[in-house]
Amino acid sequence: MNKLEHSKQSLRSGELKQITEDILKHMNVKADVSVVEETVGEETVLNVTIEGDDLSFLIGYRGESLDGLQTVLSLILNRKSGMWQRVVTDINGYRKQRQDKIEEITKGYIDRVRFLTKEIEMPPMTSAERRYVHMFVSAYTDVVSESVGEGASRRVVLKPAVKKPPVSENR
């Protein structure tokens, strides 16, 4: 990243922090906001962290309010700047806790697939949660995953991996 790109990125980080603080102020929420840039592969992600007391209403049921806040922040920032930037928002470490919980649930389903040797459907999840499950399952060679369903009932199905027969070298 050259100096001009870096200064634009820093400007966007500062702007995103101000937007977040303004939204929280309008909601009469007292919280500490920080924005950290993180490079993931070719993409730069702006991570917004909100810390404070009694913010569970901002997280909502299964993180739905948090996802909504993230969408609003992303839309405002991207419309203001005219260029797309990925924004990830977290409140009091909720996303990490949810990821750990999803890993734990997924491990249980993987064990069931291995024991029963048949496909098992997981409960409905958001697209981000399904994506995380797919990435997590990809580390296992004996289980594969795929998403099925539509809308709010979209879910991940875990299946035993089809073992390919060894290739014989008969000539």
Largest sheet strand order: 1-2-3
Rounded to the nearest angstrom, the radius of gyration is 20 Å
Number of helices: 5
| SS-based class | alpha+beta
Measured between the Cα atoms of the first and last residue, the distance is 54 Å
Order of helices and strands: HEEHHEHEHEE
Helix content: 40-55%
Taking pLDDT < 50 over at least 5 consecutive residues as the criterion, the unreliable ranges are none
Mean pLDDT value:
89
The proportion of residues in beta strands is 15-25%
Strand tally, please?
6
Shape: elongated
- Major sheet description: 3 strands, mixed
What does this structure look like?
By secondary structure, this protein is of the alpha+beta class. It is 47% helix and 22% strand. Strands 1-2-3 form a three-stranded mixed β-sheet. It has a three-stranded antiparallel β-sheet with strand order 4-6-5, covered by helices on one side. Helix 1 (3-26) packs across helix 3 and helix 4 (94-116) crosses helix 5.
Task: Give a quick precis of the structure.
The chain has 171 residues and is α+β, with helices and mostly antiparallel strands. It has helices at 3-26, 56-59, 64-81, 94-116, 127-137, and strands spanning 32-40, 43-51, 86-91, 120-121, 143-148, 155-160. Helix 1 packs across helix 3 and helix 4 crosses helix 5.
Main traits of this protein?
171 residues; alpha+beta; three-stranded mixed sheet; 5 helices
Produce the secondary structure layout:
Blueprint: H1 3-26, E1 32-40, E2 43-51, H2 56-59, H3 64-81, E3 86-91, H4 94-116, E4 120-121, H5 127-137, E5 143-148, E6 155-160
Parallel strand pairs: 2-3
Antiparallel strand pairs: 1-2, 4-6, 5-6
Helix pairs in contact: 1-3, 4-5
